[in-house]
Amino acid sequence: MTIRIDARFAQLKKENRSAFVTFLMAGDPDPVTSLEVIKALPKAGADIIEIGMPFTDPMADGPSIQAAGLRALKAGMTLKKTLAMVRDFRKADDATPIVLMGYYNPIYIYGVDRFLADAKSAGVDGLIVVDLPPEEDSELCVPAMKAGLNFIRLATPTTDDKRLPAVLANTSGFVYYVSVTGITGSASADSRAVGEAVARIKRHTALPVCVGFGIRTPEAARAIAGEADGAVVGTALVDALRGSLDSSGKATVKTVTAVTELTAALAAGVRGTR
Amino acid sequence: MSQLRPNSYRSGPDERGHFGIFGGRFVAETLMPLILDLEKAYAEAKADPAFHAEMNGYLKNYVGRPSPLYFAERLTEHLGGAKIYLKREELNHTGSHKVNNVLGQLMVARRMGKKRIIAETGAGQHGVATATLCARFGLECFVYMGAVDVERQQPNVIRMEMLGAKVIPVQSGSRTLKDAMNEALRDWVTNVHNTFYCIGTVAGPHPYPMMVRDFQSVIGEETRKQMQETEGRLPDSLVACIGGGSNAMGLFHPFLDDPSVEMFGVEAAGHGLTQLHAASLAGGRPGVLHGNRTYLLMDDDGQIQDAHSISAGLDYPGIGPEHSWLHDVGRVKYLSATDAEALEGFQLLSRLEGIIPALEPAHAIAKVMELAPQRPKDHLMVVNLSGRGDKDVPQVGDILRGKTK
Ligand SMILES: Cc1ncc(COP(=O)(O)O)c(C=O)c1O
C-alpha cells in the first residue's frame, strides 16, 4: 500500500488539526496551466490533492464540474495525460497524497491492470470512482488494493447502519462522507448533522473521515473541519479558476493565484478549528 | 474462442444483474440503497397475483390491449417475399409501446409509496406515457428532455404539458437522450428520498433492464398467441428497431428459446456507419455508462461520443445490456438503417397500408424492405410497429418539402 495518505493523517494528528482536501479537474483549463495550479496547492495549504479525471458524462456532478471536465477534454486532456501530470507533480513533491477521482469508463477502457500499474508508478495514492459501489468491488476496488492503491469509498446520507459495514469493508486511506444527497455544487449540510453522521461512521471504522459537497467558504470549511478529520472543497475552487479565465475560456496570468488565494483562505479556515 | 452456448437464452440476469459480462449496478452510493429496495419491491410485486390482476385490468381497458397482429397485405405484395405482419403497438393509448413499461413501473412506485416521478425521454413517447399514467394515478411528474429533442418533437412536448407534467429541457452535452438521462440521474441522486425514476428502456442499473423487459414482454407473448391463432404456428422472423431496445426485447424475449425464430434488431445508422450514427453494436465497444456495462459509442480515451439519428428515440450512444449479450452470443442479428432508409420506410408504409409509423419503427420497416424479398412466400415475418408517426409529422413534412435536410 502507498503510505502517503496514512502518513499525512498521522502527521496531522500530531499537529492536532483536520486535513484540507482540494479538488480540481485535471487539464482545466489546459494541461500546462493545470499542472502549474496543482503544483502550487501544497504551499497554499492543501494537505491532500484530489484530481478529477475528466469524463463526458459525469452523472454525479453539477454544472461547474461538468463544465470543468468539458474544458479539459476540449484542451485535449486524456487519462494518460492525467497520469503524466501526477508524474510531473511527484518530481518536486513526494509527500502530498494524490487521489484521482472520476468515473469508471475511462479506466475500464484504459485497462484496469495497466491503469493501476501506471497510476502507482506515477505516484497516485488513492482512487475515488463514483459509479463503483461495493456491489461492483471485483471491477476495480479489489484489484486496486492488490496493486497497493487506496480505494476510497463514498458514504452518503442514504448509507444506513446496515449497509455501512459493506461500504467500509474494502475502504482504505480515508472515508469520504458526502454530506448531502445530491450532486457536486449543491447546498451544504449543516455542521451538526455532519457531526452526527461522522460519529455514526466512526462507530464502524478507525479510518479518518473527510467530508465534502457544498463547502464553499472558509467559515463553512472551519465548521465542517471541526466535526471531521478533513474538509473537501471542489466546486468553489473550480469556480475560482473559471472566474480567472478570459472570455474565450483561456487561462490568464491570474489563473494560478485565483486558485491559490482561495486555497489559502480555506486552509486558514480549516486550521482554525481545533 | 467460441462462445459457450447457454441452455436457455431466457434465464438472465444473474442475481447481480449480469447478462454475461453486461449489465450490473454502476451507480453512485447515494442511489444504491434505493436500487436494492426497488429490486425487492419488484420481486414482491412480481410474485403477487393481485399486482398482475390489476395490471391486466389497466392493460385491457386503459391501454387497449391486446394490440392487433395485422397482416400487411399490400406491403407483402409490394415486396414480393415473406408474409409480413405488423404488431400494432402504435394503437396503444399514448401511441407507442412505452406505456406497457410505464404502467408496470408506476404500479411498483405506488407500492413503494413514491409520489414524485421523473423520466428521461428522447422522442417524447416515454415522456408522454409517463405523464399520462402520472395523471391517472395522481403522481407528480418531471420529464427531462434534450433541448434538441424538445425542438424536433414539439407535439409531444405540448402533450406532456397538457397532461400536467413539467418538461425540463436539457442544455448539456449533445442535448439529446443521453444528456436527458444524465440530468434525470442527477435529479434522482438529489431527491432520492421521495422520487421514483421511471426509465424508458431496457437499460440502466439492475433491476431496470430485467424489469422493463418483463413489462414489455406482453408484446411477444401476445404475438405468439395471435400467430398461433391465425397461422397455427410460430413466426419465422421478428424485426424491431432499437434505441435502448425495449420494444425489441419485448417482442424477442418470449421467443429466444425457439430456435426456428430468427430475430433482427435494427439500430439507427444516421448519416451512415462511417459518419455520425447511433448504432452502438455496429460501431461501439463494451464500456460503462448509465448504470450498466454495454456496447457504447466512445473514443479511445473512453469518452462517450454523441450519437446521431433522424429519430430522437434512437439517438442514444448505448443499448440495453441484454442486447449486448444476445449480440455476443449470436442469438439475435443486429442490422442498421440510415436516416434516408428510414424515411423511405416511413413513406412506404404510409402509402401502402395507410399507417403513418413513428420514425423509430420506420427503421425496422426499412430493413423489412431488404429482408422480406429474400424470403419465401410462406415465411412469416413480424415487425414491431412500436409507435405512430403523429409526433413526426411536422419534422418529416419539413424534410420532404425540402425545408431542412
Ligand atoms: C415509437 C418508439 N419506438 C422505439 C423507440 C426506441 O426505444 P426502445 O428501443 O427502447 O424501444 C422509441 C423511443 O422513444 C419510440 O418512441
CATH homologous group name of chain A: Aldolase class I
Fraction of helical residues of chain B: 40-55%
**What ligand molecules are bound, each kind once?**
pyridoxal-5'-phosphate
Number of helices of chain B: 16
Task: Estimate nothing, just give the exact number of structural domains of chain B.
Answer: 2
Summarize the structure.
The complex is a heterodimer of chains A (274) and B (405). By secondary structure, chain A is α/β, with parallel strands linked by helices. Chain A has twelve helices and nine strands.
Question: Would you mind describing this structure in some detail?
Answer:
The complex is a heterodimer of chains A (274) and B (405). Chain A has 274 residues and is an alpha/beta fold. Chain A has one domain: TIM Barrel. Chain A contains twelve helices and nine strands. Chain A has helices at residues 4-15, 31-44, 63-74, 79-92, 104-110, 112-122, 141-147, 164-169, 191-202, 218-225, 235-243, 255-271; strands at 19-25, 48-52, 98-102, 126-129, 150-151, 154-155, 175-178, 209-212, 230-233. A nine-stranded parallel sheet of chain A has the order 5-4-3-2-1-9-8-7-6. Chain A is globular. Chain A starts with a helix and ends with a helix. Chain B is of the alpha/beta class. Chain B folds into two domains: 18-58 and 97-212, 3-Layer(aba) Sandwich (Rossmann fold); 64-95 and 217-400, Rossmann fold, CATH 3.40.50.1100. Chain B is built from 16 helices and 14 strands. Chain B has helices at residues 32-46, 49-63, 73-79, 98-111, 125-137, 147-152, 154-162, 177-190, 208-216, 218-231, 246-252, 280-283, 321-329, 339-353, 359-371, 393-400, and strands at 18-19, 22-26, 69-71, 83-87, 116-121, 140-146, 166-170, 195-197, 237-241, 262-270, 285-289, 291-296, 333-338, 380-384. In chain B, strand 1 (18-19) and strand 2 form a beta hairpin. In chain B, 62% of the residues are buried. The mean pLDDT of chain B is 96. At the A-B interface, helix 3, helix 5 and strand 6 of A face strand 2, helix 1, helix 8 and strand 11 of B. The structure holds pyridoxal-5'-phosphate.
